[in-house]
Protein: ELMO/CED-12 family protein isoform 2
Amino acid sequence: MSVVRAQGNCVAIPTLSPSSSINLCSRGSASPDDVTCGTPTWIGKGLTCVCFKRKGVYERICINLTPLQEERMRRLKHRMQVYFDASRMDHQEALKALWSATFPGQELHGLISDQWKEMGWQGRDPSTDFRGAGFISLENLLFFAKTFSTSFQCLLKKQGGKRSAWEYPFAVAGVNITFMIMQMLDLHASKPRTFVRSVFLQMLSENQWAFDLLYCVAFVVMDKQWLERNATYMEFNDVLKSTRAQLEKELLMDDVLRIEDMPSYFLLS
Structure:
């Protein structure tokens, strides 16, 4: 990833894989509306363009999305559109799988039970807490529990650091993290509008589970910042904002080409 300076601003240009294409097109005269100087601009379907100024000439770097990137983004958007439906058997099974991964060997007495409060849901029925982010937030929690079980259990049981008396509820925090990442990556927009999203698209082409991996990183970053701030439940939104800022900073680092390259990835175990 290279960095181009534009009147004091920096635009990070990621190094692309052989499957992606990149075109550099100079524009000697560009209208103010056509120039963003470091702010991403999107032109046409499937084109990612970032403008910057060099020696009085405006230039635009355009990244053509590959069929693989477009397909994986469609799949991710489809996942985002699925609401949790307690009447669907596959959704019930996913919820049971989350319980089994969270509390191995502990029998679940029902999909509506006081037991769910142990995981950090607000009430006896966890399905009511999925409204903000949908079924994908359950998939994220399940991915975290299965892929990084040590980190998952540590956060669940609040084992790290000096904890506050009024802690964040683990599972509900997870749903909020999913929603935060979707906003950060601007995934609800029909066309990309942020440079962070263009970087993520490249990561998604490298690994179809990039979103789920980023979720796991976000969770451990959030908990780390929670401890550093000695935060309480009332400060959760502030911690979530600072978590987002940290993630954006790391995603735009020169050497970060995959989720696994993010400095905070190494907090996972």
Observations:
- Residues 197 and 209 are 15 Å apart (CA to CA).
- Residues 66-268 form one domain.
